[in-house]
Amino acid sequence: MERVVETSSLHIGHARDVSVDVKVSNTNTDDNNNNNNNNNSVLHVQVRSYQRKANNLLEQVKTNRVQSRLVTQKVEELLLQFLSEYDNNILSDGPLALELLNTALSNCSSQKNERLVPRLFSLTCQVMIRSDYRNTSVATINEVHRQLWRLLNGYEQYFATNDIQYNTHHVNDACSYYIRHIVYDANKKRRKLDYRKNKQINQLIDRLAKLYRNPSVPLMTNPYIDDSVIMLLCNQRKPREAYELLRKRVEKKKTSLPSSSSKDLLPPEPLVSSFTSIINGYAKISQPENALRVVEWMLSAQNETTVVPPPNVSCFNALLHAYAMAGGNDAGFKAEQTLEWMEQICDETEQHLDTMPDDISYNICINAWARSNHPDAPIRAEDLLRRIISLGEAGMCSNSNQVGPSEEAFTAVMNTWVNCISNNNNNNLRKKVDNQEVTDRVTIILDLMERISEEDSDRLTLSVIPYTVLIKAWEKTAQQRRGLERQKCGDKILQVVQRMRAKGVAPTTEVYNSVLTALEEIAAINAVFYFLELEQQYCDGTIQLNTRTFNCGLNAIAALNRPDAVEKATDILKRMFKYCESDRSILPETFTFNIILKVLSRSESHIPDAAARADDLLSEMDSMPSVTPDFISYVTCIIAWGRSHEKDKMKRVTNLLQKYISSLDERNHQDGNDNKSSIAVFNAVLSVCHHNLSPELRVDSLETAQVTMTELRKVKGTADQITYSSFFRVVKEGSPVDRPPTTLFLNLIEKELIRCTSDGYITRDILTAVYQVASTTVFTNLVGQNEDPRTFSIPKAWSRNV
């Protein structure tokens, strides 16, 4: 039995090591499946091979053709086969592994003395997770949690009585694998764990902690479970708590005394990954100084007899990331100093620590410069890039791989130059950078990238990303140009697409969208023509487009604002519906309809019924299952009515406001903003009221403004400066001179002035409006004194938010 256990331990260690690369391996398998039918058939046989063996064993157990004492060993062998062929795992492997586990448990003559049981739980949980690794479902995670909880609650039944190390290895291995998988997935998506998963993990950790403290339970903590808890804390943006936990573990290890009777015979030695997680945790909350403190602690501990591991290149990369995330003018300098520090440590220390900067180190350092606002950022980033190229040509290596330029490094430097254009208005810049100069530098970097790729395609491959950056650079250059020079920038952008094709890089849909966006900024007519060319190629089946492409084309048509814009925009919408019958990537969305609504709102001068057509389109959106009008839809339609010449337009505007209010709860959930989106609709109505104060519409506009403010308070909306300014302008310019306002209207003015004072939006124009409309007595009661608003000294608290 002892020989079997030792062999199994080696297998599970191997399984844990390869689990990190499972996604890459699965991807490779998929590629092979797509490219080679013979491989597909072989893989199919392999999958069925271990499933067939598992089903045969289950059948033998049912018919009593296998001895009970051998079932656990045979189940262990099958589970190991599942894991060794993890590339081919399928969803059905999880339930099958669980069935094998239950079969083994039911056939143990004495589970308490069966050492393999904790190991079987560990292997089963790994198979369940790996069988659904690409998209681990909630059901799978919940089932794994149930099995781990079953193991911990049944420790008296399942743990090996006299083997604390064996229990510790497999129990903690299973729990840490489960925790690390969930946390790693959340980190990859740059999200915190959701409430349910966080609760499940903490329940498991609390249960483990109780078992560790119980001297009668043959179980103790190990580095992997500590590392998992640290990862969890850092995911929850609690690196300080993770740091304190690690400190305690180190002190516990340093002060522990070996004792054969002690449960703490082997206190955990912290892993270097625990330190790296904490450094990354401080990076997430932009505290590079604390990240540096962790690295300094690791280095200083090397002069002592301690269990603190030496820092490696991953620790320093995490520190570099902390500087990059924090940003600021000195981010690039600190990152470069860290690179020099890494080289110095590697060269000078007797241990020759693994701290030599690698590709990732240089990329992060370049990113630190890109995120800084320092005027020398693009030059310093480019110098780093050329340093990487020189190291690659010289064959320099870190302990992990050869240092050489990557696409990420080139793209980061190009983006740093482009960001320099955006920062031209920054007063910190010593010199204003000419956009043409920036575009030339970006082009030179791309030239260098193409040359290296031609010399050694394995060393550097080209993609669409750097070409997209060059397109963005020409777009920004065009913003400084006028006339013919501006048009030339558009030609340069089209030449970038041709350059891509010449280098064997096929433009993607995103590239076409970037070109359309840039051309629209330069000359909308050129964007329209280019869009029509793309649409023809799409119809020919030579390229792929999506909804955003058509939205770009519609935006260009809207920017032209020509008499036939409505007809052309609606024709495109009809074609989109036709295309999406066979291609759902071109399904019209809310933004698509909003562009057409915008076109209609601008077309009142040559299309008399434009507002009515916008209203109909809004109703059509409301009736469609795939599209829901948002606040922009309502604002645009309200503006369309405000520009119309219909006599009942204020009534139509009021109806639109009521329609929006009736669906406000659903709208707030969709927009994700309960006040800003809502207040925009109310402000649009008040703006329409202000621009329609002609004698024949004055009464309707005043009534609509009154209804708008009343409804705003009913829905508990928070007014802003635009709200108060628009409302009181309507009050000032719309109130008839020959007729005093009604008591109801005066009460509304009084309430809104009080709210405006409380919110800090009082201006001299607002006071003047109230002074002209209200009686002297009312104004005195509201303001506190009877003084001309033109000379009245407004308290700072009243206008603090203006």
TrEMBL record:
Record's protein name: Pentacotripeptide-repeat region of PRORP domain-containing protein
Keywords of this entry: Repeat
Transferase is among the record's keywords: no
InterPro entries recorded: PPR/CCM1_RNA-binding, PPR_rpt, TPR-like_helical_dom_sf
Entries under Pfam families matching the protein: PPR (PF01535), PPR_3 (PF13812)
